[in-house]
């Protein structure tokens, strides 16, 4: 490779050709540019196609026999997937959370009026349209048809319909954010604008 030094207005200054010299020993100023010329004979794009690069491969059984690997360190230190106690604890916590979520969801009935109270967001009123599990995320979800267009969809996600409502009126929220009650539907005057 060859290195050339240029000023900010692209005037050639000199070649940077002393291999043992430090960059600070050249007359480089703010805004100067170092231009690199590749004389290795490599064609443009030669190294972008990684399918032609020979890769080192080792079988899982051979990798397990080595003591100087990240996997052996994690096993010795009982980290990540190799910490059975932590995995069991997390699974128990997840199961407990799912049971609590299920109990909250079972107390909510389709067709009931509700208010969604999520921290950092304004309270939103609507009607419960769906209660249960979904294909898009694990856990229990409550499908809400809002009284005004504060939602994200029309009751369907990823091509699966869970309930019917107008576009931007539907939302799915976790049961802990849904408060059941006699929340009258407010007239926001949206129909008058049409």
Automatic annotation (TrEMBL):
Location of this chain's protein in the cell: Cytoplasm
GO cellular component terms, semicolon-separated: cell cortex; cytosol; microtubule plus-end; nucleus
Any single biological process term in GO: cytoplasmic microtubule organization
Highest rank taxon of the organism: Eukaryota
UniProt-listed Pfam families: CAP_GLY (PF01302), Ubiquitin_2 (PF14560)
SUPFAM superfamilies (UniProt xref): Cap-Gly domain (SSF74924), Ubiquitin-like (SSF54236)
UniProt domain CAP-Gly: residue ranges: 132-174
Keyword GTP-binding: no
Any GO MF annotation of the entry: microtubule plus-end binding
Main location: cytoplasm
Key words of the record: Chaperone, Cytoplasm
Annotated family: Belongs to the TBCB family.
Protein name: Tubulin-folding cofactor B
The organism of origin for this protein: Python bivittatus (Burmese python)
């Amino acid at each position: 490779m060859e290195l050339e030094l240029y000023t900010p207005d692209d005037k050639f200054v000199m070649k940077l050709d002393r291999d043992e010299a430090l960059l600070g020993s050249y007359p480089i100023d703010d805004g100067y540019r170092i231009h690199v010329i590749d004389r290795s004979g490599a064609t443009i794009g030669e190294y972008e196609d990684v399918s032609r690069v020979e890769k080192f491969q080792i079988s899982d059984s051979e990798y397990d026999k080595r003591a100087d690997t990240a996997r052996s360190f994690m096993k010795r230190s009982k980290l990540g997937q190799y910490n059975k106690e932590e995995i069991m604890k997390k699974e128990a916590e997840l199961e407990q959370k799912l049971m609590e979520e299920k109990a909250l969801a079972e107390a909510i009935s389709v067709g009931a009026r509700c208010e969604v109270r999520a921290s950092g967001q304004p309270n939103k009123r609507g009607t419960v349209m769906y209660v249960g599990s979904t294909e898009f995320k694990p856990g229990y979800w409550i499908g809400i048809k809002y009284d005004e267009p504060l939602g994200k969809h029309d009751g369907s996600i990823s091509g699966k319909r869970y309930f019917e409502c107008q576009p931007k009126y539907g939302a799915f929220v976790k049961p802990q954010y849904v408060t059941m009650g006699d929340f009258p539907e407010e007239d926001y005057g949206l129909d008058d604008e049409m």
